[in-house]
Structure formats: structure tokens, C-alpha cells
Amino acid sequence: MIKDYKDKYTGYKEIIDDKLNNVFEKNVPAEIYEPLIYILSGGGKRIRPVLLLFSCEAVGGNYMDAIYAAVSVEMLHNFTLIHDDIMDNADKRRGKETIHKKWNRDVAILSGDALLGLAYNTLLKTKSENIQQITQAFTEGIIEVCEGQGFDKEFEVKGNVSPEEYLMMINKKTSQLLVSCAKIGALIGNADANSIKYLVNYAEHIGLAFQIQDDLLDITADEKKFGKKIGGDLREGKKTYLLLKALDVVDVKRDKIILESILANKGLKDDEDIFKVKEIYKRYDVIDSALNEIERYTVKANEYLNELKNKEGRDSLIWFSDMLLSRST
Amino acid sequence: MIKDYKDKYTGYKEIIDDKLNNVFEKNVPAEIYEPLIYILSGGGKRIRPVLLLFSCEAVGGNYMDAIYAAVSVEMLHNFTLIHDDIMDNADKRRGKETIHKKWNRDVAILSGDALLGLAYNTLLKTKSENIQQITQAFTEGIIEVCEGQGFDKEFEVKGNVSPEEYLMMINKKTSQLLVSCAKIGALIGNADANSIKYLVNYAEHIGLAFQIQDDLLDITADEKKFGKKIGGDLREGKKTYLLLKALDVVDVKRDKIILESILANKGLKDDEDIFKVKEIYKRYDVIDSALNEIERYTVKANEYLNELKNKEGRDSLIWFSDMLLSRST
């Protein structure tokens, strides 16, 4: 059964990859289309389009009706990556050079802009009576993800950020695009208002669980499995859920000084310091607290699925949650 | 009569300005909404929204139905300005500091991105049976303007650019957004296919006339009336219609060397050199050729209007052409 969903996911992923490789009808100006072909063929888990297709099926729709929309949300996601990578001065993405690095800043700005237009162009090929609501859901996703990035940038320089503010930010930056995917899939499948609501709540909660898990893995992962050195977020001085939670609960001055030095020095350098912070996280139950939050959000997400009538659709999305949280595959 | 259209334009402009000043329902994150409120309240002729409203009326529609769409095309236009100003390293826009200058590069990228999403959000408030085609026309405008900017950037570093390539580029960069405005207005007014075609052709041709006139005024304008020194494009080494046309026709080596030095040195410094180029432009009839092209495109644009049934709408758009080409007001 689980294998079936994995096969289904792989099949959908292949369709999406294939469509992404042939989504443009032209190749000039090269300043725009070369970098876009480069990034769209550069792999990725295609989580968002698959969530959209699964959501469409979960309300009884035909995934074939949702292919264009699925491709468009992946294009939208890549638009955010191109521009975020400029802002974060990131050199690499999925193991390849970023566009602003391989070409230049202007090419990255412009090809990103064009990609957003081209994403709408693809979305609008969808045949559905609900096209206005579908386009609205897509648009809300863009606005939310931009606002999330805006808060993220503000939080980088803001002294005090509470765990609650952090959750608000990742809700916008990560969850709301998943919400758009679930909503668009459901609308294409002509879902009733209640089913849309359940799927939206599911996507929002699974997104929060996913982001907190991402923060947690940075400190608890097995380096071999993880494929990179642990503590990368601490090295960069990133305000993660764990760090903000720890700052919120530490009551021993010495511990507080260590944590605050991460922010003051904009990151840690020594492995020894990383180890010290990990110890603090353990001592103050920050790791358990993160695990609890992930579990709480996942359980809540899956509870919303129980309200869906279609058992097959429900099971595929439960499998999707597990896959997203790296519990299966 | 002319005064009536001017009053009408002024009235519509006021409505647009007012809506733009109140278009956002929130003001955080400040990184996004502060610069957007700043740029949208910074003036401008509001040519695109007015063309959209006039086009709606020219096919018998009610301009009230098109207000959201009109506001959205001005938001879209400002999105292009924010990002173009980064790429052009421009310090000023409409006499005020550009966003990337007043804030920084990242704020300009992100607030521009958000503005595009917010523009769609505003467009989608339009109530029309044609909403899918309307959103498609809006999207085509974005893609065309990005492609135009891409070609513009490529032409900056390309050795030989023909006047025909230049026209293709300004068609994309300037005309096609006007085309979107005319089409959206017509679609909201439930125009028949022919009327849409006439308005689209009108907008395309008037856009070309407008851009060539912009290039021409840089060299022929009265400095006092123009409000800035003439020859700015030559000082920047910009490949304008006049320069490319001149490069195409000069047959005396000495003249060719002068023109090519503009590109080689990336612009002229001395007023004397500007004067020399102006003399070359005159000697080879480049100025007359530009005047002819402007006239030819304007006549052609207005000919398409003759096909429209509504006399009042026709006259308002002829007035609009004159206004755009600074022949009235």
C-alpha cells in the first residue's frame, strides 16, 4: 500500500519534471530563458505540485485536470528561490550554482520576474469554472511568501524575536504556499467549501511541522545521512525555532550569554561551541519541545484529513505527510 | 470638446490616485509596505489606467466596472519601475530617490515582487465573465515587458543592433503593456473580437510612436520646456532609435567614427560632441525619419480607431494619443 503511494508520487514527479522541461515555447531573450531552463531542470522534490495533485484527487477530482496548475506552483516556488538566493547571497542551490552567481544579479532579478509571469501563464491554461478563485489562491500564496520573506529579513536584524513571531513568519514563508497548493487542487476537483477548509488546515499544519523539523535536523541529524555538517544554522547565526525557544526559557546567566553570543557574533565558528549549544538545547528540553511541536502539528494536520470522505485520498495525504517529514521513503 | 476629455482624464487620474493611496489593507512587514506606499503615492501620469478606462468606455462599457483593473495595471507598471531602477542603477525616479537607493537592493527586489502579487490581487477583484482572458492579457503584458527588458539589456552589450531589432524591443518593453491595458478595458466592456483587435492595434502603434518621440525629444527638445539638459541619451551611450538609424545610414567614414565612439566610450561628455551628433542626425535626415515614423505610427493608430462604432470613445482615444505625444495639454 505504502509502495503504491510512493510509485504514484514518483509517477507524478516524472510528469511534472517532463512538463517543466518543455514549458517554454521560446528561448530568447537568452538572458531570461537560459537561466530558467537551467533552474527548472535542476531537480527538486516537486513537493508542491504533488500536494496539489493529491489534493485534487482527495476530493474526487481527476489529476489530469490539475497538471498545468501543478506545474505552475513549482514555477512559482522556483521564482521565490531565485530571488531569495540573491537576498541571501547564496552561491549554491540543489548542489548547483545559483543564477545570480552563474550569470549575474540583473539576470537573476529579471528571469525571476519573468518566471512569475510565465507561472501565471501556465496556471491560466487550467480549465475550471473556479478559475478566478484558483488564481486568487495562487496570488495569495505569492503575497504570503513575500511577506514571510519580509518578516524573515526584519527578524535577522531585530533584537528580540519570540517563538510565536517565528511561527507566524514560517507560516507565511513556508505553509501558505502549501495552503495555496491544497486549495487550488481542491478547487480544480470542485470540492465543497468544507473539504477545502480541511485541506487548507492540513497543509498549513504540515508546513509548520516541516519547517520546525528542518530546524531540528540541523542540530540532531546523523551527518552521514544528512549529507552535510550539522549546526549549519548556528554557524550562520540563523534565528531558528530551537534557538528562539532556548532564548525564551534559559534561566542560567552563563547559558544565556552563550546563546546571545550566537546572535551578537552572527554565528558560531567552533565545533565545540556547537556542541555546547546542543547541550543547552537538551538541558532545557528544547529538542523535546521541538519534537513535541512537530508531533502536535502533524497529528493535527492528519486529523483534518479524517474529515475527508474519500479514504484513498486521505491515505495518500497521510503518506505525503510522512514523506515530507522523512519518515517514509 | 478637447477640454471635456482633459477634464475626464483629470477626473479618472484623481480616482486612480485615490485608490492607489488606499490599496493596501495592512502596513507590515514594513520592508514591503513602506516602499510600496512611497512609490504609489509618488505621482505619475497614470497613462496606463486611463487608457484602460477609455478603452472600456470606447466599446460601450462602464468605467466603474474597470476601476480595479485600472489600478492593477498602474501597480504592475510600478513593479517594473522598481526592478528596472535596480538594474539601471538609477538614483532618481519622478524626482524622488528610487527604492533601492532610499532603502536597499533587497527591499527593492522583495517589495517589487510583492507588488506584482498585490497587483493581481487587485485585478482579481474585477467582476467580469471574461476574467480568465483578462488575467491572461495582464499576464502577457508582464511577460512581454520582461522580455523587452531582457532584449534591452542584451542590446546594451551587443555590437550591432538594427533599427528593426530596436523596434521589436520597444514594442515588447513599451507597447505591449499598453496593449494589455486596451485589451483588458475592452474585455471588461464585453467588446466583440473585432473591437478588441482594433484597440490592441491602436495601443501597439501609439506605444511605438511614443517611444520614438521619447528618443527624439532627447535631442530636439527645448531645454527649458523639457526640464532637463538635452542629449542625455547620448551622454549615457544609449542605443536609441536615432543613433541606430544613423549608424545604419552614415556613409562618410568620419561621421561613422564619431557615432561609433559613442558606443565604444559608453557615452559622450562634451556639449560640443552632442552638437556634432545632432548635426549628423540632421545631415542624414535621421531626425526627419524619426518624425516620419512617429507620424506614420500615430496615423495608423488612429486609423484603427475609425473602425470603432462609438464616436465618443473614438474621439477620447484620439485625444489620448495627442496627450501622450504631448501635442495637447
Return the CATH class of chain A: Mainly Alpha
- Largest sheet geometry of chain A: 2 strands, antiparallel
Report the portion of residues of chain A in β strands.
under 5%
How would you describe the shape of chain A?
globular
How would you spell out the order of helices and strands of chain A? Answer: HHHHEEHHHHHHHHHHHH
Integer tally of domains of chain A: 1
Record field, number of beta strands of chain A: 2
Please give a quick description of this structure:
Chain A has 329 residues and is mostly helical. Chain A is built from 16 helices and two strands.
Structure, described:
- Two copies of one chain form a homodimer.
- With 329 residues, chain A is mainly α.
- Chain A has one domain (2-324): Farnesyl Diphosphate Synthase (Orthogonal Bundle).
- Helices cover 75% and strands 1% of the residues of chain A.
- Chain A has 16 helices and two strands.
- Chain A has helices at 2-21, 30-40, 47-58, 67-87, 99-102, 105-123, 131-157, 163-188, 193-220, 223-226, 232-236, 241-249, 253-264, 271-283, 286-306, 311-324; strands at 92-93, 96-97.
- In chain A, strand 1 (92-93) and strand 2 (96-97) form a beta hairpin.
- In chain A, helix 4 (67-87) runs antiparallel to helix 8 (163-188).
- The mean pLDDT of chain A is 95.
